[in-house]
């Protein structure tokens, strides 16, 4: 079974592609029944339908290829609840040779866009939505072109409810150290402003010990509203200080006058660019003290501004900072440099004086962000910590973006900002806001919850399980922002009634509603089917996706680290792995040498071995900010990226031929080869000692040694491709064998040869007390055969 091909069709990766009919058997699988869902995955061919979907009157499922259709009676039967639903009048021409695209077998995913202009508009698009089996592709193309963004009402087009926006509030740290850093940030912001669509609304906030909100509509001079950085303001108080008064009319709250703190870029571009260019560093901090920086207050004021202006769709607060908050709500350290910023040891021992209070403050902000559909992004460029660990909750739950870098002048920062503000061929930003994901299941499938950048809306129905995993207790989740790579892990369990019959199919439908970059509403529907199988059926093992399972277990392990110590999480992972191998291994009891795992299970123990040693669980040599960033990225990445994070890739370049993958083992290091190591967050080009020596002598510049030049060039070209495809861009490290920078590679390799091993002179060894993969597997086999 090719799981990559299935993902290319559905945008889904299932840990188990065949589910047992009994709840007890499903629980014994150890790896939970779960689906890694990329709701806005990119497909080679995605039909975009310019009419509204047909919805089941009983379970709210949407018409899909698995629905049974009675063409004579014009009735379709819902595969989820078996409700008989009539087709509307606009479907009078439906027939076996004239079917709507959503019924075509190859389209398990379709996307709807509609202008909500009533039945006449639906009837107008009816012909485009229906296709015959012989002309499907051409009909879909004509449907897409006929409802292009330019042709829809209002000129903005592209979906339901096209409106003004999106909204961006730039929150800039006024305590940047060095003119170069400030100049780099200014240039990046000015470049972003120049690329914004004219309908985008913008605001500017600058903070140091005070928070200054710019009045972009005042042209005589720079006028700002100043807030004290040590005070925590409620939404009502911020509204009062901004002078934005509201009144209720017919049950709706609306501003009674136009405000000038948020304006369309077409009206304030000159004022905004002038204000950005006028930003200057605040007065230098006292010697031996950190600058007074009120990051938490600035974010709170920015949220209050959007709340006061009743901006509840398509808005982002983008924070650019270069240091920790030292005053006001959300502070993580005081201004005295003699007091170090909290470490993991401080967090474990309860010696981080401000940590719990700051986390509580940002949790409140997270709730406000969710309620108002506001996204919080954090761009931190500093050699020290900035408080990303405390800010992780509001950034992740709102669907925001986080980048930790060294400098605002770096290519990494510029590329990240450029990627976020990329536009499509119609000039619309490639951003999707205010998304919700609803799951509809057949009766015997229960929904436990989700892990990822989403928030439970606590909407229960009969398909919601009493058991909660992550964001549970619902069948609908909210995402402040979503990209084509955002991935959510959904968890399920088999119902208690056990009425499913082996061999019968069950269905799960994902309905994603989101606001497109042009602020039009769209709805994407993915319907997937799998089969129930009998308990102990060999089809269960055949349908196991070990890469998806590793990704899911990594997210579960991260969740455990938030409430347990790392050693307890490792113990939990070991316990789960032993149970798993005991169930699916082939062995003679009490005989470890007889233990075998089939090919579709063989990599899973390796994934768990490297997960135990990864920076997600073993936080040694990582700051709390770095750990928060690593975990946030894993929680939103798809299966392919997650697997690279857990089990990095290692390629060998030599004179013998093209690059080849090699074992992630210290034995792969050799003096006459180049290694390319990819751990997702950083990429290492490791030159063997002989290669490094030849490079230093400049042999590659000699025409007689063209092969050496080609060998040195090959990994550089591959690294460029990796950096171009990944955001944030990974850190690139070039090092020679036995150099200090080689530690980035050695720390991730399997220590098969250590100072305690027997090794030949000149061979590479790793000084560590960690057990090797082979020792780990040997112990695993001994424990598995006992059960």
From TrEMBL:
Subcellular location: Cytoplasmic vesicle, COPII-coated vesicle membrane; Endoplasmic reticulum membrane; Golgi apparatus membrane
Molecular function GO labels: GTPase activator activity; zinc ion binding
InterPro entries: ADF-H/Gelsolin-like_dom_sf (IPR029006), Beta-sandwich_Sec23_24 (IPR012990), Gelsolin-like_dom (IPR007123), Gelsolin-like_dom_sf (IPR036180), Sec23 (IPR037364), Sec23/24_helical_dom (IPR006900), Sec23/24_helical_dom_sf (IPR036175), Sec23/24_trunk_dom (IPR006896)
Domain Zinc finger Sec23/Sec24-type: 53-91
One annotated Gene Ontology cellular component of this protein: Golgi membrane
Protein function: Component of the coat protein complex II (COPII) which promotes the formation of transport vesicles from the endoplasmic reticulum (ER). The coat has two main functions, the physical deformation of the endoplasmic reticulum membrane into vesicles and the selection of cargo molecules.
Protein name: Protein transport protein SEC23
Organism the protein comes from: Escallonia herrerae
């Amino acid at each position: 079974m090719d799981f990559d091909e299935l993902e290319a069709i559905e945008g889904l990766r299932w840990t188990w592609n065949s589910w047992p009919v009994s709840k007890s058997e499903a629980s014994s699988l150890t790896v939970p029944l779960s689906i890694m869902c990329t709701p806005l995955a990119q497909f080679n061919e995605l039909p975009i339908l310019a009419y509204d979907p047909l919805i089941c009157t009983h379970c709210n499922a949407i018409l899909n290829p698995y629905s049974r259709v009675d063409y004579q009676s014009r009735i379709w039967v819902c595969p989820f609840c078996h409700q008989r639903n009539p087709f509307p009048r606009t479907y009078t021409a439906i027939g076996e040779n004239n079917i709507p695209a959503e019924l075509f077998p190859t389209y398990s995913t379709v996307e709807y866009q509609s202008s909500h202009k009533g039945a006449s508009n639906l009837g107008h698009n009816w012909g485009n939505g229906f296709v015959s089996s012989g002309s499907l592709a051409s009909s879909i193309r004509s449907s897409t072109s006929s409802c292009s963004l330019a042709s829809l009402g209002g000129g903005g087009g592209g979906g339901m409810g096209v409106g003004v926006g999106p909204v961006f509030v730039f929150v800039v740290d006024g305590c940047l150290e060095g003119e170069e850093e400030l100049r780099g940030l200014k240039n990046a912001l000015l470049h972003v402003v120049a690329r914004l669509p004219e309908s985008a609304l913008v605001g500017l906030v600058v903070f140091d010990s005070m928070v200054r909100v710019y009045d972009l509509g005042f042209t005589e001079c720079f006028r700002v509203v100043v807030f004290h950085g040590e005070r925590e303001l409620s939404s009502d108080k911020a509204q009062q200080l901004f002078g934005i008064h509201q009144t209720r009319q017919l049950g709706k709250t609306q501003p009674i006058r136009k405000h000038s703190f948020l304006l369309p870029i077409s009206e304030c571009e000159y004022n905004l660019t002038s204000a950005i260019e006028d930003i200057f560093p605040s007065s230098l901090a006292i010697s031996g003290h950190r600058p007074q920086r009120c990051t938490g207050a600035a974010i709170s004021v920015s949220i209050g501004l959007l709340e006061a202006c009743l901006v509840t769709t398509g808005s982002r607060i983008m924070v650019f900072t270069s240091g920790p908050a030292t005053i006001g709500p959300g502070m993580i350290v005081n201004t005295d440099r003699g007091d170090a910023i909290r470490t993991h040891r401080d967090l474990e021992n309860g010696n981080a004086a401000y940590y719990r209070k700051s986390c509580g403050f940002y949790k409140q902000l997270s709730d406000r962000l969710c309620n108002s559909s506001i996204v919080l992004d954090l761009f931190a460029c500093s050699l020290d910590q900035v408080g990303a660990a405390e800010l992780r909750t509001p950034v992740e739950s709102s669907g925001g973006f986080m980048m930790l870098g060294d400098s605002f002048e770096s290519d990494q920062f510029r590329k990240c900002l450029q990627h976020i503000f990329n536009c499509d061929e119609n000039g619309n930003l490639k951003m999707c806001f205010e998304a919700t994901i609803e799951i509809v299941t057949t009766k015997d499938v229960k929904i436990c919850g989700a892990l990822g950048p989403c928030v439970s809306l606590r909407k229960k129905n009969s398909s919601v399980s009493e058991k909660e995993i992550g964001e549970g207790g619902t069948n609908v989740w909210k995402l402040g922002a979503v990209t084509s790579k955002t991935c959510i892990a959904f968890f399920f369990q088999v119902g208690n009634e056990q009425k499913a019959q082996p061999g019968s199919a069950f269905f799960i439908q994902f309905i994603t509603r989101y606001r497109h970059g042009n602020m039009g509403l769209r709805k994407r529907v993915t319907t997937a089917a799998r089969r129930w199988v009998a308990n102990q059926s060999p089809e269960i093992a055949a349908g196991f996706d070990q890469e998806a399972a590793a990704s899911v277990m990594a997210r579960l392990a991260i969740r455990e680290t938030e409430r347990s110590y790392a050693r307890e999480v490792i113990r939990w992972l070991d316990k789960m792995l032993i149970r798993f191998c005991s169930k699916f291994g082939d062995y003679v009891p009490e005989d470890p040498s007889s233990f075998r795992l089939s090919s579709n299970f063989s990599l899973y123990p390796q994934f768990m071995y490297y997960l135990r040693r990864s920076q997600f669980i073993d936080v040694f040599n990582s700051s709390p900010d770095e750990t928060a960033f690593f975990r946030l990225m894993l929680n939103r990445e798809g299966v392919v990226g997650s697997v690279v994070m857990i089990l990095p890739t290692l390629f060998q370049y030599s004179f013998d031929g093209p690059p080849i993958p090699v074992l992630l083992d210290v034995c792969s290091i050799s003096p006459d080869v180049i290694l390319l190591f990819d751990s997702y967050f950083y990429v290492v080009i490791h030159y063997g000692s002989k290669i490094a020596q030849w490079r230093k002598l400049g042999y590659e510049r000699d025409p007689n040694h063209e092969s050496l030049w080609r060998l040195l060039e090959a990994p550089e070209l591959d690294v460029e491709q990796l950096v171009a495809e990944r955001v944030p861009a990974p850190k690139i490290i070039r090092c020679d064998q036995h150099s200090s920078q080689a530690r980035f590679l050695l720390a991730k390799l399997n220590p098969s040869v250590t100072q305690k091993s027997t090794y030949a002179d000149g061979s590479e060894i790793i000084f560590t007390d960690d057990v090797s993969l082979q020792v780990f597997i040997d112990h695993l086999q001994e424990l598995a055969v006992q059960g």
